[in-house]
Amino acid sequence: MHVVRQLKLVRSRLVFGLPKNDRDRRIPLPVTVVDALREHLDWCKPVEVTLPWEDPFSDEQVTVPLVLTTPRNGAINRATFDAKTWKPALTAAGIVPTRAAGMHALRHFYASALPDAGESIKALAAYLGHADPGFTLRVYTHLMPASEERTRRAIDDLFRDTRPGPDALETP
């Protein structure tokens, strides 16, 4: 997925603008997500929405197709989405809607799953839009996998094939 813009709330009005840190980014999508997105797009076609770029009072207007829109085919304000879609979905799933279970929690879930699977902090920082991988490491370091057994196994595996046999010290 190539992230080139986002919806922003500026002076209580929706605008399109650059993503986090004013940089676009590419995020690899797994097949399961691509399939779910295709299925959604087959059922619900994107809607062309026109909004100002960065400044709500700007004459510069941008029209783009949005995957998720209001019932009147407008851009969704995040507060409206949270109240009318996200929280009812959580409740229906048996999850108590709290700040910890907000939409932003999905970002943290993603950010915690990748290091656990072995993804590098540098790649994770790029996917999250962080300018500095050090920042990503400081924020998510508590989620990095740690295991004494994994540490032992890593070094054992490194030296397993290079260990000398019983007569390695004998001279011919």
Provide the fold topology.
Layout: E1 2-3, E2 6-10, E3 13-17, E4 25-26, H1 31-43, E5 47-52, E6 61-66, H2 78-92, H3 104-116, H4 121-128, H5 133-140, H6 148-160
Antiparallel strand pairs: 1-4, 2-3, 5-6
Keywords: DNA recombination
Organism: Micromonospora narathiwatensis
InterPro entries: DNA_brk_join_enz (IPR011010), Integrase-like_cat_sf (IPR013762), Integrase_catalytic (IPR002104)
3D architecture notes:
The structure is a single chain. By secondary structure, this protein is an alpha+beta fold. It has a domain at 1-76. The chain is 41% helix and 15% strand. It has six helices and six strands, in the order ββββαββααααα. It has helices at 31-43, 78-92, 104-116, 121-128, 133-140, 148-160, and strands at residues 2-3, 6-10, 13-17, 25-26, 47-52, 61-66. A two-stranded antiparallel ribbon has the order 1-4. Strands 2-3 form a two-stranded antiparallel ribbon. β5 (47-52) and β6 form a beta hairpin. The longest helix is centred in the middle third of the chain and has 15 residues, at 78-92. The protein is elongated. This is Phage integrase family protein.
